[in-house]
Write a structure and sequence with these properties.
Helix content of chain B: 25-40%
Number of helices of chain A: 10
Structural class of chain A: mainly alpha
Strand order of the largest sheet of chain A: 1-2
Mean pLDDT of chain B: 82
Low-confidence stretches of chain B: 20-31, 280-288
Largest sheet of chain B: 6 strands, mixed
Strand order of the largest sheet of chain B: 2-14-13-4-7-10
Largest interface: A-B, 73 and 66 residues
Radius of gyration of chain A: 19 Å
Structural class of chain B: alpha+beta
Shape of chain B: extended
Largest sheet of chain A: 2 strands, antiparallel
Distance between the termini of chain A: 35 Å
Oligomer: heterodimer
Order of helices and strands of chain B: HEEEEEEEHHEEHEEEEEHHH
Number of strands of chain B: 14
Number of helices of chain B: 7
Order of helices and strands of chain A: EEHHHHHEEHHHHHE
Radius of gyration of chain B: 27 Å
Number of strands of chain A: 5
Chain lengths: 303, 288
């Protein structure tokens, strides 16, 4: 069934869009990431103009994260209290980050530096997670968690310590605000949602059980996605509601399946698949940077 | 389906006009002149739009050749250029191409290269879409510098954009596509699904190729307009950003909520179905 997309101005198969949404939603439900990193290039590949693709897929993330958060929340895998503290930090970080981007752009080749830092960061995080979860899988010992759960790290020793019963951790509110701020800042600088950075930080720095980290991460992604969708419609006027609707119906269903699938997997298995995805994204970005593009001039961009 | 009826009726009416022109012949006063009729005059782009053909029919002086261009309104398009920074490929410049039509199709009853160069330029009919290139302005922003690229300097951008449009069948040169019989001609203009909105101008030239002279010309137009849901959504996205954004977010929130309720309901049904297995309700305890 083909359908004409009003703002994108192209005609595409509705089933294809539902399917794409479903696939990305599955990743959201499984790993608590938004999935824009995957969906935007895929949409461009099937003919959606870049600006429309980027704007419409954030709208899809709103639906996927609501659906996924609720699915995780029903079985107690979302730490709303901890999530809210991180969101406050994230919004502050995002605002500072957006202004910082404007400032850095004026200084010259800012995108260049950012891309390299991002690739290195993904490589570091991905390789670390892969190695850690592989070791945990090999040990096959106690159905395990991230290394040494609950032991107080530096982050936990800051003042204003609060107990978060859902996650089962004690942590300083200041530290959480700081981490949220950092994630918001990085997300704004890198131009991506926070999921990729959020999950490793929750698992390894805050020592939250993997599945609860996924649920809580998804809860925070919801707020970022709402924020970005709103600013996209205001500034770019490029959200195609119909395109987004098809994608989000697919992804809301996918997120439900992902959340249920996540419960069937072991925490280490979840972590190792996530690390492979992070490494995959890293390889793709490195490839784009190193290999000559098929076409030097592409549509999109502008101000 | 009310729309479809109106659409079909309008199409029929257009076709009837064309047929009458054909059957009755052009009035004597215009016999030596050039005329062109367009059917349909209005193209409704709804959710089911898959592209459409527009029929051009008319008259030209006997023995002359026909050259037709079909041009949509000019607009601005943003492009990004990639280049090498050190050993890495990065976006090195942004450009805005100003005043480029989204559609530019050329039809003829004869090879375009048979025309003298001057005439090709005058009519805007050539293989290279030179008329488009000459009319465009390219603004390039690289780093903090803004450059206006005129003529060949902007060629790289225009080549890329025109290539893109050619791939989508928006730009095309179809030689010998115009069918002639006596002083009448007809040609079918295929509009792709990615049609250009707005009033598209049709220019018909009757040319005495041997002597390199334009014998006459006629103009007409047709318009593709978004209708129904397509029109509503386009109008709202362009004119009412905040409302549209809030609507988009509410729809996404509602969809997430409804799908979750649905899944939860199905889950419960499923459990009811196999209530013999008590462990299925222990889900919450399984997670660490």
């Amino acid at each position: 069934m083909s359908i004409f997309l009003p703002v994108a101005g192209v005609q595409l198969s509705a089933y294809l869009l539902l399917g794409l949404g479903g696939m990305v939603g599955l990743l959201s439900g499984l790993f608590g990431v938004g999935g824009g990193f995957l969906l935007t290039p895929l949409l461009m590949m099937i003919g959606v103009p870049p600006a429309v693709a980027a704007a419409s897929d954030t709208n899809q993330i709103v639906a996927a994260s609501v659906s996924g958060t609720l699915a995780h929340g029903r079985v107690g895998n979302v730490d709303f209290k901890l999530g809210l503290v991180m969101i406050v930090g994230g919004l502050l970080g995002g605002t500072v980050g957006t202004n910082l981007v404007r400032l850095l752009r004026q200084l010259g080749n800012f995108d260049f530096a950012i891309k390299i830092i991002y690739v290195v960061m993904l490589l570091g995080v991905g390789a670390f997670m892969f190695q850690e979860s592989l070791q945990a899988l090999r040990k096959k010992s106690v159905p395990g968690e991230a290394p040494e759960p609950g032991r107080p790290g530096l982050l936990q020793r800051l003042p204003l310590e609060v107990y978060f019963p859902t996650s089962g951790i004690k942590c300083s509110v200041l530290a959480l605000l700081g981490l949220g701020f950092l994630i918001g800042l990085l997300a704004a600088l890198m131009g991506v949602g926070g999921g990729f950075i959020m999950l490793p930080i929750m698992i390894y720095l805050l020592r939250i059980p993997t599945l609860k980290a996924v649920g809580t991460s998804l809860f925070t992604v919801l707020f970022t996605a709402i924020n970005v969708t709103m600013s996209q419609t205001l500034i770019n006027q490029t959200v195609d509601l119909l395109l987004a609707l098809l994608l989000l119906l697919g992804s809301a269903v996918g997120a439900q399946i992902g959340a249920r699938l996540g419960r069937l997997l072991k925490a280490e298995q979840l972590r190792i698949i996530f690390s492979l995805i992070v490494l995959g994204v890293m390889v793709k970005m490195a490839h784009d940077l190193l290999v000559a593009p098929a076409s030097l001039i592409v549509p999109g961009g502008g101000h | 389906m009310h729309f479809k009826t109106i659409k079909a009726f309008r199409y029929l009416l257009g076709l009837l006009t064309v047929l009458l022109t054909f059957a009755g012949g052009a009035p004597p006063a215009l016999a030596a002149g050039v005329t062109v009729a367009v059917a349909p005059k209005e193209i409704d782009v709804g959710l089911d739009f898959r592209g459409q053909a527009v029929e051009l029919t008319g008259t030209v002086p006997e023995g002359s050749d026909v050259f037709i261009k079909v041009v949509s309104p000019a607009r601005n398009v943003n492009l990004t250029r990639k280049g090498k920074a050190g050993f890495l490929w990065m976006n090195v410049a942004q450009a805005e191409v100003e005043g480029i039509p989204k559609m530019y199709q050329i039809f003829s009853s004869r090879k375009i290269n048979d025309l003298p160069a001057g005439l090709r330029a005058e009519m805007g009919v050539d293989q290279n879409f030179q008329a488009v290139r000459d009319a465009c302005r390219v603004k390039e922003i690289s780093g903090n510098q803004l450059r206006l690229l005129a003529g060949d300097a902007g060629k790289e951008y225009l080549d890329a954009l025109i290539n893109l449009y050619q791939r989508d069948n928006l730009y095309a040169v179809r030689e010998n596509a115009v069918q002639k019989s006596g002083n009448r001609f007809r040609v079918s203009v295929p509009l792709p699904a990615s049609v250009a909105f707005g009033e598209t101008l049709v220019s018909v030239y009757a040319v005495d190729v041997a002597n390199g002279k334009i014998l006459g010309e006629a103009k007409n137009n047709f318009a593709a307009r978004p209708v129904g849901l397509v029109g509503l959504e386009r109008a709202m996205a362009k004119t009412n950003g905040p409302l549209y954004g809030i609507l988009a977010i509410y729809i996404a929130l509602a969809a997430g909520l409804v799908i979750d309720l649905l899944f939860n309901y199905l889950n419960k049904l499923f459990r009811l179905f196999r209530k013999a297995a008590p462990q299925s309700s222990q889900e919450a305890l399984e997670i660490h």
